[in-house]
Amino acid sequence: MYRFQLRPATTDDLDALTALEQRCFSSDRLSRRSFRKWLKRQHSGLIVALDDDNALAGYVLVLLQPGTRLARLYSIAVDPKQRGRNLGEKLMEAAEDYALQQRRPYLRLEVRKDNAAAIALYEKRGYRLFAQTPDYYEDHQDALRYQKRLLYLPDNAERLHLPWVQQTTPFTCGPACLMMALAALKQQPPSTTEELLLWREATTIFMTAGHGGCHPMGLALAARQRGLEARVWCNQTGPLFVDSVRDPEKKAVITTLHNYFVEACKAQSLPVCYEDFSAADLDDAITAGNIVLVLISTWRLDGRKAPHWVAISGSDEECFYIHDPDPGEDQAPLDCQHVPITREKFDQMRKYGQAKLRTAVVLSV
User: Fold this and answer.
1) Which CATH number do you get for residue 15?
2) Are 351 and 271 within one domain?
3) Is 163 within a domain?
4) Residue 63: which of 330, 257, 319 has the closest Cα?
5) What residue stretches are annotated with the N-acetyltransferase domain (predicted)?
6) Are 143 and 188 in a shared domain?
7) Which of 14, 69, 84, 111 is the most exposed place for a label (fewest CB within 10 A)?
């Protein structure tokens, strides 16, 4: 029986990790600098396997997405000389154990479409295919995306088929989310021009220290203009976002636009419910086939307390799943799709600012 010692990696392993990467992969390799970065990161776990001679036989790298219940198996490698000794499965077990220790009951991974051996291993361990990303690897091979729910049995809840759209500017999260809904409900392909036009229609012009974000009624009116049915939940009746700026003239601009959006909704008989909404309300809207855009604070995701629109792509008894249009600097686009967030944390996220604004836009055809 082959025995391997598994332990957390240290900086002393950098040379061996880099050499192993060279032996295992001909492309999409992690560099020595990348290994050093992941060793320093708080939200990552790099585990190495040593053989009886204390030589590096393999490793697995797991990343933790802040503010969510999601872990991602970023990379796994087994020395070609050690293959056939069940080390890949042992490393997978270590990755799953690490994810659970970090209170991440969901583990995701990507695998080359032509890597039959790895796919067989993942499926044997209970990973389920949920998406495919074309042209993902350096040689243009497609990636298959798998997920395993480590703590709970899979349920039968159907996930909304919501395409993911990445925002192309720092301030167009709302339009990107609306384009996701348009792609799902009207089969309208996203475009940068449409993204900017939607922002022009829905923006508050000013917000915090940068460009203005999108008003929920502005997004709903833009959706109505493009053939969607829309309604708004909002727990405040006065002007939104005025507490995010100090300049009186900017406050006056935000107030003017708010009043315009309110009157436009009345003129178009677009429903606005001035009440808070619950998790049950979100579930009911999703079950009815609607797509819901929700304004959140990013504090629990990146510590910035910024207002940010996300789209709900599904829900189950434990979590809401979101499409986040902004990968930021440290995340891959794959990490921003169907992100599982516990109901408790999502309830905390969907409060923005000192006024604890809660608002959402419900879209349908």
Assistant:
1) 3.40.630.30
2) yes
3) no
4) 330
5) 4-151
6) no
7) 84
What average pLDDT values come out for the chain (365 residues) when binned by 10 residues? 88 97 93 95 92 95 89 96 92 95 90 94 90 90 91 46 93 97 96 98 89 95 98 96 92 97 98 96 92 92 84 87 85 79 92 93 97
User: b/e map of 158-195 (b: 16 or more CB within 10 Å)?
Assistant: eebebbbbbbeeebbbbbbbbbbbbbbbeeeebeeebb
Domain presence at residue 159: no
Same domain? For 350 and 207 the reply is yes
Using the structure block, give the residue that is written with the tokens 């709903």: 220
Question: CB of 292 within 8 A of CB of 363?
Answer: yes
Q: Is residue 181 part of a domain?
A: yes
* H helix count then E strand count, the chain: 11, 16
Residues with Cβ < 8 Å from 352, sequence gap 6 or more? Answer: 295, 296, 297, 307, 358
Measured CA distances, 335 to 128, 240, 340 (Å): 16, 30, 10
User: Which two three-digit tokens encode residue 226?
Assistant: 């493009």
Question: By the 8 A CB rule, do 132 and 142 touch?
Answer: yes
Asked if residue 132 and residue 230 are part of one domain, the reply reads no
Q: Which H or E run contains 169?
A: none
